[in-house]
């Protein structure tokens, strides 16, 4: 009796290699799509944060007749020296317990907001952080034995710290009526990730007392002051609205974000827009509250 060998079907090496190549391409496309969806989601969440902060600042103005100080100076009118505009928004973003802790801490230690009594200095407030920056989910140790929680957002002080021609700056008491360029045409705050060494970007208090830009407020043509700490090799400026890198210490001197192509900004009327880096030329006009500048289009 003859025996017949049954033919076994299978794949050749070439077919296997082709299949692997196709799967690799599909995985690459899928990963790219997932990354784009994730980036769109984080950008949207970041915009939502700024919208809530914009609403909080409007409510603060309704209660106090002025917007919060960008940074409260050493000789404080309200005994919250060195505190930032974000600190004063706490009661308006449903952070009353933390605000009460802040009041208590300033009662115990009014001169040093970096001391252990000031719990807020080490408390992460999710609304103050952009989800694109994974560093901000916890506080960080930095120079001077300071342990600080950080923020992705800076108040727009105008063009540079020397001029204080914007909305939020050292000892500012800006009223909406002071913004004669129009609240819909004037930037209030925008994105700037904390510096590489985590010394610049504290939300609770300003380590440099507001005398220089980049601590809680920032100009769109910011300058590096001669006595600026921990910035060796950084140019004097002026700096411009352009891409940055979290490992570059000098990028603390300009607005930028971890989003592709630009950064989110809140305007003084509460509106939020994604500004592309190509809009750098109009940023000085948008940053000043009473410069008399006219911006034809933001697109």
UniProtKB/TrEMBL annotation:
UniProt-listed PROSITE patterns: PROKAR_NTER_METHYL
Entry-linked Pfam families: N_methyl, SBP_bac_10
Domain named DUF1559: residues: 35-280
Membrane-crossing residue ranges in chain numbering: 12-34
Source species, domain of life: Bacteria
This protein's UniProt keywords: Membrane, Transmembrane, Transmembrane helix
InterPro entries, alphabetized: DUF1559, N_methyl_site, Pilin-like, Pre_pil_HX9DG_C
Residues making up the signal peptide according to the UniProt record: none
Record-given protein name: DUF1559 domain-containing protein
């Amino acid at each position: 009796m003859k025996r017949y060998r049954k033919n076994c079907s299978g794949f050749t090496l070439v077919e296997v290699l082709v299949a692997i190549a196709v799967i690799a391409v599909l995985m690459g496309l899928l990963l790219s799509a997932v990354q784009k969806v994730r980036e769109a989601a984080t950008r949207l969440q970041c915009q939502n944060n700024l919208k809530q902060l914009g609403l909080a600042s409007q409510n603060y103005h309704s209660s106090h007749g002025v917007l919060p100080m960008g940074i409260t100076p050493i000789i404080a009118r309200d005994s919250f020296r060195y505190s930032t505009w974000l600190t004063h928004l706490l009661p308006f973003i449903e952070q009353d317990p933390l605000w009460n802790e802040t009041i208590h801490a300033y009662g115990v230690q009014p001169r040093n907001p970096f001391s252990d009594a000031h719990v807020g200095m080490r408390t992460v407030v999710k609304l103050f952080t952009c989800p694109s920056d994974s560093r901000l989910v916890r506080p960080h140790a930095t120079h001077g034995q300071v342990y600080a929680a950080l923020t992705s957002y800076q108040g727009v002080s105008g063009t540079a710290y020397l001029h204080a021609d914007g909305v939020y700056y050292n000892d500012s008491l800006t009223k909406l009526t002071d913004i004669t360029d129009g609240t819909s045409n004037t930037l209030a705050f925008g994105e700037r990730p904390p510096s590489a060494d985590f010394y610049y970007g504290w939300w609770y208090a300003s380590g440099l007392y507001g005398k220089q830009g980049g601590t809680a407020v920032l100009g769109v043509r910011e300058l590096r002051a001669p006595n600026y700490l921990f910035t060796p090799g950084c140019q004097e400026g002026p700096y411009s609205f352009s891409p940055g890198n979290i490992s570059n210490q000098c990028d603390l001197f300009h607005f930028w974000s971890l989003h592709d192509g630009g950064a989110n900004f809140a305007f003084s009327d509460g509106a939020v827009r994604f500004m592309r880096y190509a809009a750098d030329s109009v940023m000085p006009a948008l940053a000043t509250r009473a410069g008399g500048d006219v911006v034809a289009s933001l697109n």
